[in-house]
Amino acid sequence: MIFRISASILLLTVLPGRAQTPAKDTRSAAISDARMRSLLKVIPFDFTEDSTGGATVFAIRLDGHPVAVRNRGEGLNLSACFEGVVDPMQVNQWNREHFSTRVYLDEKGCASLGSDVTFGGGATNQAILDFIRRFCTDVAVFARFRANPPAAPDTPSAPQAARVESPGRLPLPVGVMAWSQLGPYAKRTPPWPETAGSVPGLLKIHPNLTLKYDPDQWKPAASRGDGQFAFSHASGAAHALVVTEHSAVPLDSVEDVALANAQSLDPHATVVFRNRRWVNGVASWFLKIKATVGTIPMVYWGCFYVFEGATVQVVTYTEKSRLPEYEQAFTDVLNGLTASR
Questions:
Q1: pLDDT digits (tens, 9 = 90+) for 113-145
Q2: Does any domain span residue 173?
């Protein structure tokens, strides 16, 4: 059978009220087919249902890729098929660097991205939808990763276009994150007000989000007026960026999206440290990423927040050889972000 849901789908937004979780969101250990059917109807895609073989499989298409949602009663298995040949080196790199998904060959020989979850203590409707949404983000990330095969270790990375502006002269492995939000999974949010009231030493990003910094150490270097703010250290050898976007990346996918941005410039970029943080009840990721830009080894320390339906990146960076000089300055800036609800 096929269920059809009429909706106008935009790239990054949905019509208000179309993708809403059912009002009753009680926790239940069992995920019945009827419950899954009801939740998938919340998503404005056509889907088919196949109950042959004992397990019910719901099939949708996501950005041109067939996605199977298998209901296992107390958990879910999701998989997306990517046609064509996938470089084994890419498969190994993805499986080594990513923890919530894996790449494998399915029974039909298709390179598939897969993820599993078991709700041992029961699952709410929101938890199920969040898991599906994170997987959809990972499909976008893997598609981009697949389009950028690893270069040889001694091959300089090529400059990329349409990147976040840098106060320095080097291209940046830092970019916007909204590209990862497919179809109806991005949340529509009203525009944030302008950053009126900012003064030296205090950047007002949002009425409930501010960045404190030492104005003697950090000087505003550029502002494009579209949610991007850049600072340069007084020495000129270290920089900081603040990037705000009106699209909420699933928090558990932030690391994958940030790494994908870095690897679009340097395919060998890696996350060398990760830590989940809380600031006044707002969750974030603290990531340390190393990448070679041109021929220069660089280090990037960043805090990534998902806040009131939007994403905020605060990233500091310098040459790897000079990191010891700026560790304390970077720490002070990253700890200067204050969030409140």
A1: 999 999 877 788 888 988 998 999 999 999 988
A2: no
Tell whether 189 and 142 lie within a shared domain. Answer: no
Of the candidates 173, 186, 191, the residue with the CA atom closest to the CA atom of residue 250: 186
Shared domain for 66 and 203, answered yes or no, is no
Number of helical H runs and strand E runs in the chain: 5, 17
Task: Count up the domains in the chain and report the number.
Answer: 2
Q: Examine residue 153 and state whether it is found in any structural domain, yes or no.
A: no
pLDDT of residue 195: 58
CATH of the domain at 278: 3.40.1000.10
Res 9: pLDDT: 24
Provide the domain limits for residue 315.
Answer: 178-339
Predicted local confidence at residue 205, as pLDDT? 82
Residues 103 and 7 in one domain: yes
Q: Identify the segments of the chain with pLDDT beneath 50.
A: 1-23, 152-163
User: How many other β-carbons are positioned within 10 Å of the β-carbon of residue 215?
Assistant: 14
Q: How far apart are the first and last CA of the chain?
A: 44
Strand ranges inside 207-265, DSSP E:
209-212, 218-223, 228-233, 238-245
DSSP H or E segment with residue 131: helix 125-146
| Residues 57-103: tens digit of each pLDDT | 999 888 888 999 998 888 899 999 998 888 899 899 999 999 899 99
- Dihedral sign (CA 304, 306, 307, 311): positive
For residue 307, give the nearest of 284, 337, 323 by alpha carbon: 284
Q: Radius of gyration (Cα) for the chain, nearest Å?
A: 21
- Pairwise CA distance, residues 128 & 2, whole Å: 21
Residues 89 and 192 occupy one common structural domain: no
Which of 104, 129, 146 is the last residue before a domain boundary? Answer: 146
